[in-house]
Amino acid sequence: MKKSLILLAALPCVALANVPIMGTVESKCVIQTDTSGVYGNPSPSELSTDSTDGGVKPIIRYDILAADHYKAVISYPNSFSSSPVLADVVNWTGDVTVGQTSDAGMSAFESGKIEYNNTVEFDLTIAGSVWFDVASTADYGYDKSFPAGDYTAMVTAECIAQ
Amino acid sequence: MYRSIILFVAFCILGGHISAHQFTPTYPVLEQAPIPGVKVLNMSIFNNRKEIAWYSINVYDKDWNNLAFASTDKLINLNYLERKNIEVYVRTIDSNKVVYICSKSKTLASVKNPSIITSRICSKVKNEVFNINSSLSGVWDSLGRFKLYES
């Protein structure tokens, strides 16, 4: 009798044991701005993100949640998105390098990178976090002085599904 | 016991940092829209970039040519930590060509940071029908060539 009562009492509890499973599909490649860059002005005709020139390199962090699904495509600037009026040509140079990594094997990203124009591609074959350092230098004309004003250039960081 | 605590803390730290511009799913599937002749892609975008409030959407073929599409929001206003579900409509005749669907951050002209970082995330439509059609057309091509030689 007691046993039946206990079982009867337990029944509603069993009926109420609905446990919802919640979840959100997270992106497998996440781009995060770690450091915004700053151009230093080591000479009147040059703007550079190099620390020896008084600049700060932009740093972009990629969080790779699953390997082999995405490639990182990073482009350093080849024009100003805003600047004073420039009458002469600006010569652009730059580079993208692998900085800090959460996995030692990610150093292979650097040796396997593909470069074309102002773009560098990395195959994200290892899961984890990787920081990319972007260098950019702008030379104005032939030793001409950049006009005074604010200069803005754009770095593009992309995750392309494979 | 300690191991579980360390794992939990590590999960929280990593989980807490998985935040920025996100565009999901990685491999979306084209579905039939309620309107005849139109297919739809259901995407989700999440903004965790404080300095960005606008994103654009674009659709491309395998050679990165722009494809025509319609969406409720072509230019999306997303506040910090806001998620939005978007529907992207493409014509059924173009559906075999759709390969990449991308979201790109947009920066306001008033922003005066010396170096702006634009983020773009592209998902890929793995169009099996397209691949089968391509292989079949290859087979037909070879058959055609065979017939040409035969005659």
Provide the fold topology.
The complex is a heterodimer of chains A (162) and B (151).
Chain A: H1 2-15, E1 29-35, E2 40-43, E3 46-48, E4 59-64, E5 70-75, E6 80-82, E7 90-101, H2 108-111, E8 114-116, E9 119-123, E10 128-140, E11 152-161
Antiparallel strand pairs in A: 1-4, 2-3, 3-10, 4-10, 5-9, 5-11, 6-11, 7-10, 8-9
Chain B: H1 2-17, E1 22-24, E2 31-32, E3 38-47, E4 54-60, E5 70-71, E6 75-77, E7 82-91, E8 100-106, E9 115-124, H2 128-150
Antiparallel strand pairs in B: 1-3, 2-3, 3-7, 4-6, 4-8, 5-7, 8-9
Question: What's the quick description here?
Answer:
The complex is a heterodimer of chains A (162) and B (151). Chain A has helices spanning 2-15, 108-111; strands at 29-35, 40-43, 46-48, 59-64, 70-75, 80-82, 90-101, 114-116, 119-123, 128-140, 152-161. Chain A is mainly beta.
Description of the structure:
- The complex is a heterodimer of chains A (162) and B (151).
- Chain A is mainly β and 162 residues long.
- Helix content of chain A is 11%, strand content 44%.
- Chain A is built from two helices and eleven strands; from the N terminus they run αβββββββαββββ.
- Chain A has helices at residues 2-15, 108-111, and strands at 29-35, 40-43, 46-48, 59-64, 70-75, 80-82, 90-101, 114-116, 119-123, 128-140, 152-161.
- In chain A, the strands form two sheets. In chain A, strands 1, 2, 3, 4, 7 and 10 form a six-stranded antiparallel β-sheet that branches. Chain A has a five-stranded antiparallel β-sheet with strand order 6-11-5-9-8, with no helix packed on it.
- In chain A, a hairpin with a 2-residue loop joins strand 2 and strand 3.
- The longest helix of chain A is centred in the N-terminal third of the chain and has 14 residues, at 2-15.
- The mean pLDDT of chain A is 88.
- With 151 residues, chain B is an alpha+beta fold.
- Helices cover 26% and strands 36% of the residues of chain B.
- Chain B has helices at residues 2-17, 128-150; strands at 22-24, 31-32, 38-47, 54-60, 70-71, 75-77, 82-91, 100-106, 115-124.
- In chain B, strands 1, 2, 3, 5 and 7 form a five-stranded antiparallel β-sheet that branches. A four-stranded antiparallel β-sheet of chain B has the order 6-4-8-9, with no helix packed on it.
- Chain B is elongated, with a radius of gyration of 21 Å.
- The N and C termini of chain B lie far apart (79 Å).
- The interface between A and B is medium-sized, with 37 and 33 residues.
- Strand 11 of chain A pairs parallel with strand 9 of chain B, so a sheet runs across the interface.
